[in-house]
Design goal:
homodimer, alpha/beta, 434 Repressor (Amino-terminal Domain), Rossmann fold, 3 domains, 6-stranded parallel sheet, 12 strands, 16% strand, elongated, DNA-binding, LacI family DNA-binding transcriptional regulator (chains A, B), LacI/GalR-like_sensor (chains A, B), transcription (chains A, B), transcription cis-regulatory region binding (chains A, B), Peripla_BP_I (chains A, B)
DNA sequence: TGCAATCATTAAAGCGGTTTAATTAAACCG
DNA sequence: CGGTTTAATTAAACCGCTTTAATGATTGCA
């Protein structure tokens, strides 16, 4: 690759001049500009992004730390998130450095990334990395709340408790009292949050919570989310009475629907179904169309991007944003 | 941020020594190593990735050029592709620089990216960028074939013609003669390829091709892929006779299924359905489970990654890889 | 015509690392 | 013990660009 020196030499100017021709930060006379550009073209010269970054201490790149499970297909949630981040960052001229590498134990191996800021997904409890970025003065925004909470850290998150509460209240006010609750895995904070939200709704309406049959996704038992829905429905159908089922995701709901077809249960006449998240974004396309909560992962990502960009301009920026989830009533629920 | 100089000074050694402690490219005595590391820790020093990249001319980053439509949700195909690229590259210690920025008209603005190689999606006809990367000596691999074909350019691609041919042959040998073919948009090469593959199957089996009613996706007419399937099915059901429908994607098939339910058409008893691509990866989870072609976008991505990594080691590498698509027969088809 | 102001250009000093060639110190050996 | 290896360290050059301060060349104005 030709360098700026080659161009400067051949065009008979200094490299400072060539630099200015390309960066346009200083006026260069027309004849000189023309000569430089033509020489550059002839040599196939393009400014070296790395060298430039080193000099100006800016890369126009945003890092996205995204853990990826080993077996790991990226979840739909992550994808939509990513989409939001991309759109927002691209709009402001930033590119995304996807970082799904597992972290090196060896601190010696750790190097500061070629990024101007970082968005981090699903931070862990007492996440070491957060301090490290702060130490390096690299602006950071989390998607998901920091644990422990820290008012100096910017993040965006859903309010899962509120979301489950809304769903619970909706079903209760529609006359449903007993339901099957297909929550996600037992060990996740989101499950706890949802559970307490649901309890709150029952409490508020004065209905005893033992009307709710709670289940959890278990990887070993359920091969796919759909299996989880299908098997739970088949298993619980006769065992306990319920007029509604609250499902982890739309994929799980797909399994429930399959079971209802086999069982001859009509949705929504005999059974109402609500999905707590719209992963595959298929609610609109299912039969019947699925009442579900719109988690707006994309908004989450976009907002994270927005805040980060702001923070890269003004490092003192701190913003903590809870994105409201929307319950969208479609055809899979009815009031009793 | 502390620099290598700060560390060197405080530890009372030269920067070359500090460099070696971190890069481990040269043995440094234990006492010195310890001293340097402790000083580094104290100062919160981490090697600067950009400076290092400039010096060693290597970034361990792979660029992914991925056009993103303006309205644009990323398609499932792209996502699975991306997933494949990520997995393969991560495995070898590379990170991904996502580049969805529209290209600058102004060549002046174009700078060589901080990447060691590039994967490019959906290259355009006579794509300027390809030459540019070659000029810059940056290894590149395409996903999708270059147009015009060029035996010096590495790429991976599906064989859409063969794929449609297989589907056509499968249906014909199962006794289906007339079908509804919901192809993708008319102006895409993939549509042409599929059409000619399908024709070939008919020719081979000696069945006149006018038994096939071909439709195309039209953005203005069909709000969603599902609408495309639903509307086409509703419209054509009485107009022309057919015992099978070949659908663009699984989303489209979802619309077809909805229509059959409303029309009281049983799948697969009265109608067989095959999807030409498994975008939402929901074939398994639909009712009935959908017979579909597994495009293996993820494999495409992973293979592109593999070839690129190879090419970064040995720039003379050229590989052109056609990934076979698999027709997976599930429950939505039957032989007559 | 002389002096200040303006404009275009350049030389050189960074940016923060790596690496080569030279130097010093320690170890080995007959 | 002198001479040769070997190992550890360093000084300085370099990677390719930006930017500051200095230098000339022009222009404006009285």
């Amino acid at each position: 690759m030709a360098t700026i020196d080659d161009v400067a030499k051949l065009a008979g100017v200094s490299k400072g001049t060539v630099s200015s021709v390309f960066s346009k930060k200083r006026p260069i006379s027309q004849p000189v500009t023309d000569r430089v550009l033509s020489v550059a073209k002839e040599l196939g010269y393009f400014p070296n992004h790395i060298a430039r970054s080193l000099a100006i201490k800016k890369t126009m790149i945003v890092g996205l730390k995204m853990p990826i499970s080993k077996e790991g297909s990226t979840t739909q949630f992550e994808i939509q998130m990513l989409n939001g981040v991309i759109k927002e960052c691209t709009k402001h001229g930033y590119r995304i450095l996807l970082d799904t590498l597992p972290e090196h134990e060896d601190l010696t191996q750790f190097s500061s990334d070629p990024v101007d800021g970082v968005i981090m997904l699903n931070p862990r409890k007492h996440d070491q990395r957060i301090e490290r970025f702060e130490q390096m003065r690299i602006p950071i925004v989390l998607v998901g709340r920091p644990d422990p909470l820290d008012s100096s850290i910017s993040y965006v998150d859903n309010d899962n408790e509120k979301l489950a509460y809304e769903v619970g209240r909706y079903l209760l006010t529609q006359g449903h009292r007993s339901m099957l609750f297909l929550n996600s895995s037992a060990n996740m904070t989101v499950s706890d949050d949802r559970l307490s939200g649901m309890k709150k709704a029952y409490e508020e309406q004065g209905v005893p919570f033992d009307n709710v049959q709670v289940m959890n996704f278990v990887r070993k038992l359920h091969a796919t989310p759909m299996d989880y829905g299908y098997m739970s429905m088949m298993e619980m159908h006769q065992k306990v009475p319920f007029t509604a089922v609250v499902s982890d995701t739309d994929r799980v709901a797909l399994g429930i629907l399959r079971a209802t077809r086999e069982l001859g249960v009509d949705v929504p006449k005999d059974l109402s179904i609500v999905a707590l998240s719209n992963n595959v974004r298929l609610a609109e396309e299912m039969t019947p169309k699925l009442t579900s909560v719109e988690l707006s992962a994309e908004t989450l990502g976009a907002e994270a991007g927005r805040i980060l960009i702001q923070k890269m301009k003004d490092p003192s920026t701190v913003e903590q944003l809870i994105i409201d989830a929307q319950l969208i009533v479609r055809e899979s629920t009815r009031s009793l």
